[in-house]
Amino acid sequence: MAGRQRFIDEDQKRELLQRMEAGENVSKLADEVGISRQRLYEWRDHLRLHGDLKSRRRGRPTRSTAGLDGAAQLQNAVDLPAPQEKALTSARRRIRELEQKVGQQQLDLDFFREALRHFEEDQRRSSAPGETGSSKSSKR
Question: Taken in order 32, 37, 41, 46, is the CA torsion positive or negative?
């Protein structure tokens, strides 16, 4: 991860996310900038949830004497706690995995239904009157 950057501005983040959505390899994008793939996914989810990519400051919220009580200060300083965001990201990823699995199962089910239909049609044709089926008397 040579060329690791300490700060990536909002425009660079948007460009990376657009390239990611366009289908570029996420691992290569992350390596190019020197960040983890997880960070790209977090930015994407944050953009979808909040509509912006502004960095949140880590650590304690700044003290303000503007007359806000402690609960209001905390609410203004933090949109969603990090564990909730991670759980949300994890839940969305699991939903996508399950949707893909269900889609594959639907394809399999359709394939086997079609195969069964062809098999039943062949069986009906061979047992119809006037048709020669595969029996001992027809093999002589």
Answer: negative
| pLDDT tens for each residue of 102-138 | 888 998 999 999 999 999 998 888 777 766 655 555 5
From the number of C-beta atoms within 10 Å of its C-beta (0-12, 13-18, 19+), residue 47 rates as middle
Distance, C-alpha 78 to centroid of its chain: 25
The pTM assigned to this predicted structure is 0.37
Helix (H, G, I), strand (E, B) or coil at 35: coil
The CA distance from 78 to 84, in Å, is 12
| Dist. CA 90–CA 60, nearest whole Å | 26
Give the angle 35-85-70 at the CA atoms, nearest 5°: 115
Element (H, E) at 38: helix 37-50
